[in-house]
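Hi C.,

You asked whether I'd gotten around to modeling the 312-residue construct. I have! Everything is below, sequence then structure, no commentary in between.
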Amino acid sequence: MAFSKQEAFLLLKKAMEENRLGHAYLLCGTSQKEVGLLSEEIASRILGCSLLHLSEHPDFHLVEPESKARKILTEQMRHLEEKLHLKPQASSYKVAVIHDADRMVPAAANAFLKTLEEPPDKTVLLLVTLLPEAILATIRSRSLVISLHEKDLFLESEIEKKIEIIMHEFFKEDAPKDATAAFQCVRAFQELLSTARKEALEEAEEEFQIEKKQYGKTTDGSWEDLREEHFKATAEAAALESRSLLIAGVTNYFGSCLRKLYQQQNSEIDSKAASLLRALEIVESLRNSLEQGVQEALALEAGFLELMRSRS
C-alpha cells in the first residue's frame, strides 16, 4: 500500500506516540526529494529537534554515497555501527538515515545486515531509496516498507514524452546516423537536462527563501549556510533524478523496438535484434559512466556517437 508523505509521517508519528516504533524502515517512492524530506521529518520528530538543526544533532547520523563511483562503502557502515552502539547523547533515541541505500556495495550491505539482525537499543534506521528492488532481499525483509504515492506524474510523463520524441526523431529507420546526428541528439538531451536543473534550482531557492523568512530572525547565522548547502544538494539530486529518467527513456525506446521486432515474422529479425541488443548495452555503459562521475557532456557525446554507429 502506498501513502502520501503526510500520511506516512502521521503513521510513524502515531507509532512513536504508542511506543511501537520499528527499528528499521525502508522509505521508497519515485521522488528523491519527497522521500528524503520524509526521512528528515521523521528523524527530527523522533529526536525532538527542528529540521533546521537536525544535521547538528549528536544523535542523528547520516550515511550517503561518498566514493567517486557514488557507492556506500563498507567502512562507512562499520563506522555507523560503532556510533549506533554508543548511548544517545541528547535524546532517548538515535536515528540513522541512509540515503540511496541501494548504492551499498555487497560488503557494506552485509555489514549493515548484521546491524539489522542485532539492532542497538533505542535506535531507528531509515533507509531511503528509489530502487527498493536493488536492495539486498534480507535487508528488505527485516525492514518495514513505506512506499509513497507517485508524485508529479504529469511532469514525469512530459519528460518521457519529450525523450520519446527525441528518440523517434534521431533513431527512426530513415533518420541520419552520422556524427552530426549524434551531436544534434546530444544537444537535445542537454537542453532537457539544463531545463531540469534550472527548475530544480529555482524550486530549491524558493524553499530556501521561505525558510529564511520564517526562521532567519530566530536562529544564529550558521544555519543559513547549512540550509543553503542542503537545498543546493537537493536541487542537484533532483537534476540527477531527471537525468536517470531520461536515460531510462532511451532504454525503454530500444526495449520497445526489440519487443515489436519479435512480434514480426521476417528474415531480418536476427540482424535487427543484434543491433538493438547492442544499443541496450551501450545505454547501460553510458549509465555506468555517468554514475561513476565521468564528465557528463563527454559521456553523452561518446555514448550517442556509439549508438549511432551501432544502428547504421
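If it helps when you're writing up: Residues 151-155 have pLDDT under 50 and may be disordered.

Thanks,
B.
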